[in-house]
Amino acid sequence: MDVLAQLLIALFALLTIVLLAMAAQRLLGVRFGTVRTLVAALAAFLLAQPVLGPLLTALDIPADGQLPDAGALGVLLLATMAMVLIPMVLLVLAEALVPPGSLPGPVELLRSLRGRVSRARRYSQITRIAIKHGLGPYLRGRGERLEDRTGKVRLARSLREALDEGGVTFVKLGQVLSTRRDLLPAEFVEELGRLQDQVVPAPWAQVEPVLVAELGAPVEEVFAAFDRTPLAAASIGQVHAARLPGGEDVVVKVRRPGIGAVVAQDLDIVRRLAATLESRTRWGRSLGLRDLAEGFAAAIREELDFRVEAANMAAVSAPPQPGGAEGGPRVRYPAPMAALCTEQVLVMRRLSGRPVTEAAPEDGPRLARDLLDCLLRQILVDGVFHADPHPGNLMLLDDGALGLLDFGSVGRLDAAVRSALQRFLLAMDRQDPLGVTDALLEVVPRPEDIDEAALERALGQFMARHLGPGMDSVQMFTDLFRIVAAYGLSVPPEVAAVFRALATLEGTLVRLSPGFDLIGEARAFAGRHIAERAEPAAVRETLTQELAALLPMLRRLPRRVERIASAAEHGRLAFNVRLLADERDRRYVTGLLHQVLLTVLGATAGVMGVMLLGTDGGPQIIPGASLFHLIGYNLLMISAILTLRVLAPIFRRHPGTEE
């Protein structure tokens, strides 16, 4: 009998806990996790005895089986609401203090601890490197503000040395920053531009397992010949010469073993470091370090996947290329062997030639012109362009053409951005400040409070200063980026890639042909492009496309005009505006009204409860408490329940989520 009684008591307790959990979740109107809700109900059940015991003890309930009077029922109702109110309070407090997902599970906790230990070691190493090169105060946001050029050069050199010692990810970060003249002073751009990622190649004993695993067969079965000595080695991969069984010469690019885990860890540190610097330092907020780090991480992840590079090669080489004097393309690209390309191995046809820096001086202007024409065509016409055209990615082929290599970094532009860039270039050629301003504000997001007249004057002065004979293209890019930054224009990542490519291209053109007239050649390209668009075939194609788009509308236009004119003539012309036609808008407004109504009802019940508690007199229910007091306490409970109902959805709305 005792065991049966204990089982009945346990069953009653379990049923009470479940009912409390269901009631609390139903009254709050928000779905909580099952474990969280049951824990809150269990806590309420355990607290019920010490909290409600004295109240029930003071209540005189008949022992002869008679029904309790109205006062006793009111006290029982108050006790029931108090029991339901306890888990509601606990759930809302838990939602506010410990949101769902903020506490990891056991497996996630173990992985997190391992990651923290590994990250702590890397943090310690990076911190030692930063302190060694005198960057510690700047990481804490307490570095001195440098105004003189000597101090900036010294700080830039320390930053370059620290990034170089930090490893592959930080070297790549420095290389990306060296192209952002819109963000960094010229001293930093110049110093970071000296970063090189040439490293000692990985030994064949480490490279061969990667090839076998990725290709699914021994190297001797896939290739007729394979040179184990690499042609070149960089931080992410190294390149070997090989020959296919069919006799075709190819180049095999292999990702360095273990580089994926190292880069992933460093990228996590870069993101965390960027978030910290953006929140703690003024210069970090001005540079937008968080967004910069995210864009950098995405670019590095693409570079690690050689399948992306193979797709980039195919995309860049797809449009027809203009031919040279011999009829072949003036700039050529290696073609990937799709069947042999994997995440860690890239096989492509080999281009025969030598480094472009070994070109004869008399060939420099022609090569520079061909390269500029190729990149401008990629950016303005094709929409897919090589984003890193530095001299190391160029070859002088045996027939005198240029070879463009390494497509790990490729930019893409949609038709609208390409059209705006074309108008920007043509307006620059005409030296039209209004046209340049309009085109620039189409390329970048338009701020709400921009002074367009002042921006137009600044661009006019910029063109008057730089678009004349003997201009300095390096200073021109720097001044343009300063104007963009001064007027708070946020450059989208795809447009920033264009600026980065052009800034890199400018240095390459100077290496190929000192004194190369970049602006003059760009104007010549614009003239040729306009001439191509003005050819009869191009004009006919453009008109055909426009007419095909306009013809359906033109067919319907007369009937619609006639209907409008007839309705206006007979006084039946009216305008119908449907407010809240979208179901989502109606749902949002309805929810808002519900929240307002619950807030008003809760406040009203609370005020009435306080007023009744302050009222003397009335029938006595229990010693020291009248009927007015009992009703007041119940109204306060109702006010608390309604208030919690309003607060629960508020705490559930986390940043970046929608109800």
TrEMBL record:
Domain ABC1 atypical kinase-like: start-end pairs: 194-435
Pfam families named in the record: ABC1 (PF03109)
Transmembrane segments: 39-59, 71-94, 592-615, 627-651
Keywords, alphabetical: Membrane, Transferase, Transmembrane, Transmembrane helix
Any GO MF annotation of the entry: transferase activity
InterPro entries linked: ABC1_dom (IPR004147), Kinase-like_dom_sf (IPR011009), UbiB_kinase (IPR050154)
Protein name: ABC1 atypical kinase-like domain-containing protein
